[in-house]
Specification:
The complex is a heterodimer of chains A (325) and B (100).
Chain A (H helix, E strand, L loop, with lengths): L1 H8 L2 H14 L8 H23 L4 H29 L4 H12 L3 H13 L8 H9 L1 H14 L6 H9 L2 H28 L4 H20 L4 H29 L4 H12 L6 H8 L5 H31 L4
Helix pairs in contact in A: 1-15, 2-11, 3-10, 3-11, 4-5, 4-7, 4-8, 4-12, 5-8, 5-15, 6-13, 6-15, 7-10, 7-13, 11-15, 12-13, 12-15, 13-15
Chain B lengths: L3 E10 L4 H11 L5 E5 L16 E8 L1 H14 L6 E10 L7
Antiparallel strand pairs in B: 1-3, 1-4, 2-3
Classes of the chains: A mainly alpha (325), B alpha+beta (100).
Chain lengths: 325, 100
């Protein structure tokens, strides 16, 4: 286990993230231009979707059916477990509990990409249809948590259609689902012409991910000062909840027949907290939830936790569940 | 050149509110608006505006009645929970008929 952790901590992705945090802590003037950050995130998501689509074309219905069902199940469990923990153990208000739960119910695509890069590096090739599972997990969690929040806090609600539109037309969904469809349709021959640029195991993709992680480090570093404001309960929640959800993901993924690599990625998805799709949706729907809580938790606690130590732990859990030495 | 006295309503708000505000302004009778992005900090400090994106400043030139409607609407819906600022100033515009 120590060896796996060491390999992960010394990976270019982890170190780029750490450098970003350090740059912010020492108040460097360095930052990634907004357009480059957005461009990189478009490239990463689009590559993921395209390659996922190409590989989805090879998958049979039987292979994907059980993993898809457990993924949806995870999407229903994680927002509720997060909500109940916050509400009844943490004694947080309805809006804050539901707002934070929406983040833990949804997925961080970058954590997914980091997990994918990690398991491939460990030689545990995941199933090709994992990006399809990512899209399945993206939205139910947000909706379930927001629905709980709106019902129980009596927030002035806005039309459900507006919320659905926002979640389903967000950047992540359009690029991932669009990429899956395009990748599915183009076939191997067309794919081979663009593969060097979009290959998620290739040097270009990994290089872009490193740059992106620098910016993630800056974003997380900027929130370090808020760690004092969130208090010890949320600090612990931001690390223990991912472990619980990750263990659930590794176990259910293995039950559904995923390989060690696939189960690790499902675990990382279950453990991750969204910071792209969820914050605007929560801000609009549950305006009385405190953004300092949910942004600090997902960006400054859970994201670094997963990328630095969580993913290797989920990998180990998946190995143990499947009896791999 | 003749100018018409009208009101300019200026709203500075969190980026997530832009689409909703624009729809509502149209519904309340504004015939047009300008949107600028910017940075800043207020009594909530940075925390409420940290959802990614820049603050938006929405300016719209309207009649006195519409300005009152807009101010009443935003006071009711936004002041409590959002980083939000709204004010009205007198302006004198050319081609006044465009705005009412």
């Amino acid at each position: 286990m120590n060896e796996i952790l060491r390999v992960n901590l010394l990976s270019p992705i982890a170190l780029a993230f750490v450098l970003g945090v350090v740059a912010r802590v020492i108040r460097s003037e360095f930052s990634l231009p907004k357009e480059i950050y957005q461009g990189l995130s478009i490239y990463l998501l689009w590559s993921l979707g395209l390659q996922g689509g190409v590989e989805l074309a090879h998958a049979t219905f039987d292979e994907i059916a059980r993993p898809a069902v457990v993924t949806l199940l995870i999407g229903c469990i994680t927002p509720i477990s997060a909500y109940l923990t916050l509400r009844y153990f943490g004694r947080f208000g309805e809006a804050d509990s539901a707002g934070i739960a929406a983040h833990y119910g949804s997925v961080s695509a970058v954590t997914f990409i980091a997990a994918s890069t990690f398991v491939k590096g460990m030689g545990a090739e995941p199933e090709g249809f994992m990006p399809t599972l990512l899209t399945l997990l993206e939205s139910p969690g947000i909706h379930i948590a927001l629905a709980i929040g709106v019902m129980r806090s009596g927030s002035k609600t806005r039309p459900t259609s507006e919320l659905l539109h926002e979640v389903f037309t967000g950047r992540t969904m359009v690029l991932l689902v669009g990429g899956l469809i395009v990748g599915f349709l183009i076939g191997e021959k067309n794919w081979s012409t663009i593969e060097p640029f979009y290959d998620t195991k290739g040097a270009i993709f990994r290089g872009a991910l490193c740059l992106f992680m620098l910016e993630m480090g800056l974003l997380a570093g900027a929130r370090l000062g808020d760690l004092k404001k969130v208090g010890p309960f949320l600090l612990a929640f931001g690390m223990i909840m991912p472990l619980v959800h990750g263990a659930l993901g590794a176990w259910l993924g293995s039950l559904a027949g995923l390989s060690v690599g696939g189960a690790t990625m499902l675990a990382a998805m279950a453990a991750s907290a969204s910071y792209i799709a969820a914050p605007p949706a929560v801000r609009m729907t549950l305006p009385d939830a405190n953004p300092t809580y949910y942004l600090t938790l997902s960006l400054a606690i859970t994201f670094p936790f997963n990328v630095l130590v969580g993913i290797p732990i989920y990998f180990k859990l998946a190995q143990m569940t499947q009896g791999v030495p | 050149m003749n100018s018409t006295p009208l009101k300019m309503v200026v709203i500075v708000a969190e980026p997530v509110l832009e689409t909703r505000l624009v729809t509502e302004l149209r519904g309340l009778g504004a015939t047009g608006f300008s949107i600028l992005e910017g940075r800043g900090e207020g009594t909530r400090h940075s925390h409420a505006t940290d959802v990614p994106g820049s603050n938006v400043r929405i300016e719209t030139i309207v009649s006195d009645e519409v300005a009152d409607l807009i101010m009443a609407h935003v006071s009711e819906h936004y002041f409590a929970n959002y980083s939000f600022m709204a004010y009205v100033t007198d302006v004198a515009v050319a081609r006044g008929a465009k705005y009412v």
